[in-house]
Specification:
mainly alpha; 5 helices; elongated; 90% helix
């Protein structure tokens, strides 16, 4: 029974991680460039507000919800999946947990907290803002690749498992 349902679970996981990748891509592609191109006070203030609002968003549910889901997918891939499907599932989970969650927790979140503590009139804050824009975006590129890669791995794993079940 689980073997018949799990490809659909993986398809849903692929959609969820794809949505996460889409949000990250939006920031990497044009949101951060726009904020950095703005006057420092305007860009900093906008990013502070974005960072405050994200905690109450559907995006945050997907971002954090995919961590335990990825762990479960990895466990299934390592224990129950047959053939190449298991490797794809473990790879997808590793991409998500390391490339998305770990990068977010160790990189983007601490930078966001530091930005949030800055006064918008501090000249030192303006210097941090220039650094923030470059470093945060570089880390975000990693998160974009990690979540897109996980989505692809979960989808390939789903297709392989569905092919084995047929």
């Amino acid at each position: 029974m689980v073997d018949q349902i799990f490809p659909w679970v993986l398809a849903a996981a692929s959609v969820a991680t794809g949505l996460v990748a889409g949000v990250f891509l939006t920031f990497s592609d044009f949101v951060m460039r726009s904020l950095v191109a703005s006057a420092p006070v305007a860009g900093m203030e906008a990013m502070q507000e974005i960072n405050r609002k994200v905690y109450r968003s559907v995006f945050m549910v997907l971002l954090l919800g995919m961590v335990p889901a990825s762990l479960a997918i990895a466990a299934y891939g390592a224990v129950s999946a047959t053939g190449a499907a298991g490797a794809w599932l473990v790879a997808g989970a590793a991409l998500y947990i390391i490339g998305v969650f770990a990068v977010t927790a160790a990189g983007n979140v601490p930078m966001n907290k530091r930005l949030d503590a800055l006064e918008l009139t501090e000249s030192a804050g303006f210097g941090y803002w220039a650094h923030y824009g470059q470093r945060w975006t570089a880390l975000n590129h990693l998160r974009t690749a990690g979540s897109a890669g996980a989505a692809i791995c979960y989808l390939v794993g789903a297709m392989l498992l569905a092919g084995n079940a047929a």
